[in-house]
Amino acid sequence: THEEHALARTERKTAPGYHGFAFHAAPDVTLEQDLQRRDLTINAMARDEAGRLIDPYHGAEDLSRGVLRHVSPAFAEDPVRILRVARFAARFGFTVAPETQALMAQMVRAGEADALVAERVWQELAKGLLEREPSTMFAILRDCGALERVLPQLDALYAEGRADEALRALDAAAEQAAPLDVRFAALVRALEPEAVEALCAKLRAPAACRDLGVLAARHGNALADAAHLEADELLVLFEAADAWRRPERFTALVQAALAGEPDSEPARQRLQRAHDAALAVDAGAVARDYAAAADIKAAVAQARLAAVRASIK
Q1: C-alpha to C-alpha distance for 17 and 107, rounded to whole angstroms
Q2: Are 284 and 244 in contact (CB under 8 A)?
Q3: Per-residue DSSP letter, 295
Q4: H or E element at residue 96
Q5: ∠197-203-204 over CA atoms, to 5°?
Q6: What are phi and psi of 144, to 5 degrees?
Q7: Are 172 and 268 within 8 A, CB to CB?
Q8: Which pLDDT score, from 0 to 100, does residue 252 have?
Q9: What are phi and psi of 68, to 5 degrees?
Q10: Strand partners, 95
Q11: Pick from 171, 179, 305: nearest CA to 251
């Protein structure tokens, strides 16, 4: 039946952060006690043996209205809930109840967000990036002050006036059903490469996300301007992005760099034609005519340049 059953349980805060809990599950714990410890009203509903809804915190009403509301002050005991609320808002398009937003801000001021470990932040962030409107997650984290604590490099974009650009690119990548690394790179393209590296180190982000994010930050502007680049400039860009050995990653980089860009099709087509033409050059055949490594490298570069130049006429 794919159903899961568990004893009702209660939990008690014993230390800062989300690890500091003691759980008590036993037959004497009532369902109502269990529901009282849930995070949100929409998660604090159950049915009895006869199928009747048990909804002491009006979760059904909040569900119908699209509202994320905490059940009780116990919400404040687990800082991961801040991230989860923001992620749920991005997934379902729900709003956060004012009192819940205020409680999350209070948790941040109390230092609860500082107790979050990198792996758990990345886990929730990655899930949020894959939601249908991921920018909502960052807006909610910003509103309660959590963004500054857990993702300071992204929070700094607001002061620089570049947050809207970054979030627009992220949502555009989401509309294209882009994979996680492309969405992450689209988001961080507005950062300096060093800031992307610092953010990824803080989050312990996967290497694929880190590498694509750094490339997007370093070369995103040039890729977005590709419709106006000459053949030699395109070739330099391909070399810098390791487009010969990593063609699939280069395709992902282009998607991330052009996400949210107005009228990006000319740049996309020019990059595609030029990249395909350069990849079609048979480097082995060119190399057979030369002995010295330096001569081979120069000859291959010249052959690729000629191919790219011909492709963009």
Answers
A1: 11
A2: no
A3: H
A4: strand 95-96
A5: 80
A6: -95, 0
A7: no
A8: 97
A9: -100, 115
A10: 67
A11: 179
Side-chain half-sphere CA neighbours of 189 within 13 A: 31
pLDDT in the model for residue 99: 98
Q: How far is CA 215 from the centre of its chain?
A: 16
CA–CA separation, 136 vs 150, rounded Å?
A: 16
Place of tokens 């033409």: 277
Provide the token pair at 12.
């008690």
Structure-block tokens of residue 246: 């990593």
Residue at 204: amino acid letter = R
Residue 123 contacts residue 84 (beta carbons within 8 Å): no
Q: How many of the other CB atoms lie within 10 Å of CB of 197?
A: 17
In one letter, which amino acid is 18? Y
**Angle, vertex CA 64, rays to CA 58 and CA 70, nearest 5:** 45
Query: How far is it, in rounded angstroms, from Cα 201 to Cα 207?
Result: 10
pLDDT at residue 180, as a whole number: 98
What would the DSSP string read from start to end of 25-85? E-TTS-HHHHHHTSSBGGGS-EE-TT--EE-TT-HHHHHHHTEE-BSSGGGGG-THHHHHH
Task: Count the neighbouring beta carbons within 10 Å of the beta carbon of residue 278.
Answer: 25
| H runs (alpha helix) in 113-162 | 118-129, 135-143, 146-150, 152-159
Measure the CA–CA gap between 25 and 166, rounded to whole angstroms.
Answer: 45
Token output for 43: 């998660």
Cα–Cα distance measured from residue 283 to residue 297, given in angstroms and rounded to the nearest whole number: 9
Orientation angle between helical segments 80-92 and 135-143, nearest 10 degrees: 140
- Taking the chain (313 residues) in runs of 10, the rounded mean pLDDT of each run is 51 52 55 81 87 90 97 93 97 97 97 93 97 97 97 95 96 98 98 97 97 98 95 94 94 97 94 95 87 86 94 90
The span from the CA of 129 to the CA of 206, in Å, is: 14
**48, burial (CB in 10 Å: exposed 0-12, middle 13-18, buried 19+):** exposed
Q: Which residues lie below 8 Å from residue 32, measured CB to CB, with a gap of 6+?
A: 54, 56
